[in-house]
Design goal:
The protein is an alpha/beta fold and 182 residues long. It is built from 6 helices and 5 strands; from the N terminus they run E-H-H-E-H-E-H-H-E-H-E. Strand 2, helix 3 and strand 3 form a beta-alpha-beta unit.
Length: 182
């Protein structure tokens, strides 16, 4: 079973938050930064050598952009909200499918609920922070799904905390990890 987990490239949120990690810059569904676009283009060469047939992508803008820059339109993307990020900051609040479809008309979002990201009690910024145990349960269920389906030659473009919940490794932006869900 050959699965590759790819963390998104640097987003505008990542760039702003690294300057002041005490304050959420309130960039909802953050797009990539210019540096992030460069990271994704550089990752394209490495990914070409991996013989990937299937691409699963989180429905956040930075992931759709990362996957598009890495893979182009060579294969269709499977948009899957199960591989989304743990909601902690503004960048982890998604957009409804009809809004995503405006920016990415070549992709299908009709299978997503209007609120496909975590929804719960809001914090002082109006963010519904997803508890660690909820993230871990979602990651464990997704790993079991991957194992049962015997996915192979698949790239999953996902998030740092979700990848950490699956593997125990906190990846850097655009880092690729080989993953076996055993």
């Amino acid at each position: 079973m050959t699965l590759y987990l790819i963390r998104h490239a640097q987003s505008q949120f990542n760039a702003a938050f690294s300057q002041d990690p005490t304050t959420d810059p309130m960039i909802f569904d953050s797009p990539l930064s210019e540096f992030g676009e460069q990271q994704a283009r550089e990752t394209r060469e490495h990914v070409r050598q991996l013989n990937i047939d299937r691409i699963i992508v989180s429905p956040f803008t930075r992931f759709l952009q990362t996957a598009s820059l890495i893979f182009g339109e060579t294969r269709p993307f499977e948009i899957n909200a199960d591989v989304r990020e743990q909601l902690i900051h503004s960048c982890d609040v998604g957009r409804p499918p009809h809004e995503l479809a405006v920016d990415f008309p070549h992709l299908g979002f009709n299978h997503l609920e209007d609120c496909w990201w975590h929804d719960g009690e809001k914090d002082h910024n109006g963010i519904a922070v997803e508890p660690n145990e909820v993230l871990q349960q979602r990651a464990d269920q997704y790993a079991a799904f991957l194992k049962a389906e015997r996915y192979h030659s698949t790239a999953i473009v996902s998030h740092g905390n979700f990848i950490r919940a699956l593997t125990g490794i906190q990846p850097e932006n655009c880092q690729i990890l080989e993953f076996n869900p055993k």
